[in-house]
Amino acid sequence: MSVTQEQPAAAAPQTDDLSWERVCLLSDLFPERGSAALLGDTQVALFRLPDDVVVATQQLDPFSGANVMSRGIVGTRAGVPTVAAPVYKQVYSLVTGECLDTAGYSPRPGREPRLVKYPVEVRDGVVHVAVQ
Amino acid sequence: MDSSGESRRLVVVGGGMVAQRFVEALRARDTAGTWQVDVFAEEPRKPYDRVALTKYFEVRDPEELTLGDPALWDDPAVTLHRDCAVTAIDREARTVTDRLGRVHPYDELVLATGSNAAMPPIPGNDLPGVFVYRTIDDVAALRGWVEQKREAGTTAGGFVKPVRGAVIGGGLLGLEAAGALKALGAEATVIEFGTHLMGVQIDLGGGHALKRLINDKGIGVRPQTATSAMKPHKRTGHVGHLEFGDGGRLDVDVVVVATGVRPRDELARTAGLEIGERGGAVVDLACRTSDEHVHAIGEVACIEGRCIGLVAPGYAMAEVVVDRLLGGEATFPGADTATKLKLSGVDVASFGDAHGRTEDAMEVVWADPAAGVYKKLVLSDDARTLLGGVFVGDAAPYASLRPMLGSQLPGDPGAFLLPEGGGGAPALELPDDANVCSCNNVSAGTIRAAVTEHECTDVAGVKACTRAGTTCGSCLPLVKKITNTELQRAGITVSNALCEHFELTRAQLFDAVRVADLHTFTEIIGRFGRVPEGADGPGRGCDICKPVVASILASLGNGHILAGEQATLQDTNDHMLANLQKDGTYSVVPRMPGGEVTPEGLIVVGEVARDFGLYTKITGGQRIDMFGARVEQLPDIWRRLVDAGFESGHAYGKSLRTVKSCVGSTWCRYGVQDSVGMAVDLELRYRGLRSPHKLKLGVSGCARECAEARGKDVGVIATEKGWNVYVGGNGGFTPRHAQLLAEDLTDEELVRTIDRFLMYYVRTADRLQRTATWIQDVEGGLEGVRKVILEDSLGIAADLDEAMARHVANYEDEWRAVLDDPEKLRRFSSFVNAPRTADPTLAYVPERGQRRPATDEERASGVIIAGPKLEVRA
Ligand code: SRM
Ligand SMILES: Cc1cc2nc3c(=O)[nH]c(=O)nc-3n(C[C@H](O)[C@H](O)[C@H](O)COP(=O)(O)OP(=O)(O)OC[C@H]3O[C@@H](n4cnc5c(N)ncnc54)[C@H](O)[C@@H]3O)c2cc1C
Ligand code: SF4
Ligand code: FES
């Protein structure tokens, strides 16, 4: 499959001087689940949505402090694609990275209840992610 | 102040519960802005929920107890002066003086100074370590003291000497305080002067049952004991022991005195207002004192000849004065003195004429002394009109009966006292004027109107709209029942929807999927999903419905849980076939059926744990858990376990966990059947069965019950003739004993009974509902379940049998199947671009010869001994 798309990133505005990294093939990612990727020192969660759009967020779960976001359940809330944190089940929008439901918890000290998003491009079946 | 500048000055002395309700009600009703209110509070905080004081030990944040909407105190018409007691009233000049000497004029004055905890004149009552239980400051000091004593009693070797506590006074408050001492980790003994506990509310019979329940909580009780002195400890000078009138003695580290309350009428006295015989400012039914410009409400008011130590009558008085100040004619409606003990796990409630003092009153009593249950109704001489009641050990009937006070009961009064499911009390349709929430004086009619007129669509809405259920909470079951009945009547379906994607309950969805013969999530949501508000299609499910559908598909036999689209539905635990831990690693639990394991098996487990550096622990389920396995290590670990003959223990699934066994007749000199053999058979039969919640079984070899089978969803106990089977037990948050379902079964009968019980549960229970609550929901309760599975009343027994047979035939070890399939194995990569690289942020420290995840502080201070890679020889 070769799908090319661009996605707006909420936290990291896309500019030309981003350094793009080839991460994996689109087919390496499981439909409607996440996978982790290691980009230098940065751990990223990649989610492959049903229409083969790929979203990248931080892998760190702000509420547990563990690097696990890729292992959450992917779904939708009112049509918006979401991921639910696997530890304490906070729900995040995969469009904005915003936490839609804190499930009654507070983030770990010094953490924000939202996920940083990274720009993703799928070019000729290869997933590229930019981490500045 | 309103624009005309004509507002009048109102001063409220006291910033407690009743003052808060008074100001709130006044501001809600005084729309013209007639009154400018100044509230003087001695305590340094906003009015808080004293009734919930004991919650302070849980929440620890005083703010959590704040009453009502804090915005009330930002209202320009209201000024709250905290930490600012009033010291004098000048009735002539109509002014009050505060503790800083400032003088404030009033047009009308409201006294709401509440009570003080009474301190009986026992010598030594001022020793350090003696506390009362009335304010947040009191409980904070008590907590600090207990913690300090515990620390002082902890030796270097880690041995902790228990903190010994005593509570003087066995009333409502004393028992609550004793519970609080226990919650703080201290021992507690209640010293009661009278013949029995809670003497004001309950009779002697109830008192006996209550003592048993309190003892069961690990709290000592000494009735008929007078405390003659509190003596200091020789070395510390802190309170050290109590001396009793009968010559007895009790060593203590902390004492809580809860012998009653005294109205704080000192201001009223010095101002020359009329004072009641036993204290309190005397008021008429309009809550006016002997000075027409001074009103008294709450515990300080002596109304109808007495002060009432409950919040509900105080709230009623607050409403009366508000009405009067706004030109109304309201009068005090009389006190509802119904009470319910707020001590978790101990059900006590009483209302009305609990002691049967009305002339010719009749009493209907139901008692089960062994179980600590005592229930009594007091009725008029024709045995119909309800005059009062006492409930100990099972207060379930309280919520629905209390509002019937003074009304005729339909049917046989005795039926209301029978244990749940034991005879069926007639349904009570409460009259509109029945008072449902006595704390907030809300009638059944008001709750119905909240639904019919104010468009509330759930209990939360009704609570916000009417305030019912917002104080002590004891009326909530009834509020819920009335609300739901009314919603149904109004044609509004009470939503049991699973989530925004499915209108159906889990049980309905299960049937729908089974009957429509669907096998994928896409088909299921396409067919039965709904379009959530704000979306243009049904969407792709969520973390609620996906695992439910996953479980349904698994129960119906759709192959491996990671096969095809099913993999997208699994919670992280099922997806990784392991249990997620706090640091993002997983735990590994191989099955050890019945808790039986060979020495060779133990050696393999030991070697695997050692080679992968896993922390090892024996679980509460008679098997071994290995913690700290990384995603990419799971297949390597399991390959070794599977090669040695182990299989998945499903510790991660909502499915059969363990069948606990005792050693039984093969070794034990008392055993009458082979309990281990039966446990192994049952565990192998039901392994892998996906269910609404986890399932646990137990098998004991005789009535000594060493396997604690009655604490399990299904408990089997050997008899001389066969097996007794019990159902619906669990531990956890609300522990329950399983109830007897059938007796003296043969092996085959036992297995068939459990097959049907489990399958019926799997098909009809709600999401995350364990067997105990499910049985309550089945029509007819346990009796209903018995009819379905033993008498086949629904004609589905054969179907259930067949479903279980299919499950048994199709079982395969989930882990072995993963190891045989490279596509499934690919899911166990740490990083898609570095599949075998460990998460570099993992860090461990040693503890008791093993390792555990480092805390944030340890990471910061650098004491970490090992990064993610610790294995000695992987
Ligand atoms: C490992 C173990 C504690 C131990 O070190 O002994 C344990 C550990 C957990 N228990 Fe448990 N429970 C363990 C025995 C028990 C027992 C004792 C027993 O089974 O005899 C109980 C009380 C009996 C009962 O279930 O009725 C128990 C009552 C709970 C509950 C409360 C269930 C309830 O109905 O209220 C939960 C919470 C839940 O399931 O929603 C829970 C949940 C958990 C979870 C799954 C919490 C979580 O999501 O992380 C823990 C993770 C297990 C893991 O990571 O491997 N665990 N848990 C025990 C594993 C037993 C096993 O071999 O499978
Ligand atoms: C642990 C505990 C559990 C309870 N459980 C229940 C229950 O389950 N059900 C129930 O109905 N009741 C219960 N109560 C009783 C209930 O809390 C009281 O009935 C209620 O608080 C009375 O309200 P009040 O406003 O009259 O008095 P309070 O709430 O005591 O308020 C009076 C306030 O006035 C202040 N004050 C006194 N003198 C002055 C002055 N001169 N100047 C300024 N301020 C002054 C005091 O400091 C106090 O803050 C419980 C009480 C306790 C302590
Ligand atoms: S329950 Fe009975 S058979 Fe089992 S160990 Fe105890 S005494 Fe022995
Ligand atoms: S009766 Fe106490 S909150 Fe309703």
TrEMBL record, chain A:
Gene3D superfamilies: Rieske [2Fe-2S] iron-sulphur domain. Keywords: 2Fe-2S, Iron, Iron-sulfur, Metal-binding, Nitrate assimilation, Oxidoreductase. Pfam families: Rieske_2 (PF13806). The keyword Membrane does not apply. GO terms for biological process: nitrate assimilation. It comes from the Bacteria. Transmembrane segments: none annotated. GO terms for molecular function: 2 iron, 2 sulfur cluster binding; metal ion binding; monooxygenase activity; nitrite reductase [NAD(P)H] activity; oxidoreductase activity, acting on paired donors, with incorporation or reduction of molecular oxygen. Residues 21-129 form the Rieske domain. PROSITE patterns: NIRD (PS51300), RIESKE (PS51296). This is Nitrite reductase small subunit NirD. The gene is nirD.
UniProtKB/TrEMBL annotation, chain B:
CDD domains: NirB_Fer2_BFD-like_1, NirB_Fer2_BFD-like_2. Residues 653-792 form the Nitrite/sulphite reductase 4Fe-4S domain. It comes from the Bacteria. [4Fe-4S] cluster binds at residues 662, 668, 702, 706. PROSITE patterns: NIR_SIR. The keyword Heme applies. Pfam families: Fer2_BFD, NIR_SIR, NIR_SIR_ferr, Pyr_redox_2, Rubredoxin_C. Residues 9-305 form the FAD/NAD(P)-binding domain. Gene3D superfamilies: 3.30.390.30, BFD-like [2Fe-2S]-binding domain, FAD/NAD(P)-binding domain, Sulfite Reductase Hemoprotein, domain 1. One of its GO terms (molecular function) is flavin adenine dinucleotide binding. Pathway: Nitrogen metabolism; nitrate reduction (assimilation). Its EC number is 1.8.7.1. It comes from Antribacter soli. The lineage of its organism: Bacteria, Bacillati, Actinomycetota, Actinomycetes, Micrococcales. It catalyses: hydrogen sulfide + 6 oxidized [2Fe-2S]-[ferredoxin] + 3 H2O = sulfite + 6 reduced [2Fe-2S]-[ferredoxin] + 7 H(+). GO terms for biological process: energy derivation by oxidation of organic compounds; nitrate assimilation. Residues 436-482 form the BFD-like [2Fe-2S]-binding domain. This is assimilatory sulfite reductase (ferredoxin). The keyword Flavoprotein applies. Catalyzes the reduction of sulfite to sulfide, a step in the biosynthesis of sulfur-containing amino acids and cofactors. Residues 581-642 form the Nitrite/Sulfite reductase ferredoxin-like domain. Belongs to the nitrite and sulfite reductase 4Fe-4S domain family. InterPro entries: BFD-like_2Fe2S-bd_dom, BFD-like_2Fe2S-bd_dom_sf, FAD/NAD-bd_sf, FAD/NAD-binding_dom, FAD/NAD-linked_Rdtase_dimer_sf, NasD-like, NiRdtase/SiRdtase_haem-b_fer, Nit/Sulf_reduc_fer-like_dom_sf. Keywords: 2Fe-2S, 4Fe-4S, FAD, Flavoprotein, Heme, Iron, Iron-sulfur, Metal-binding, Nitrate assimilation, Oxidoreductase, Thioether bond. Residues 338-403 form the NADH-rubredoxin oxidoreductase C-terminal domain.
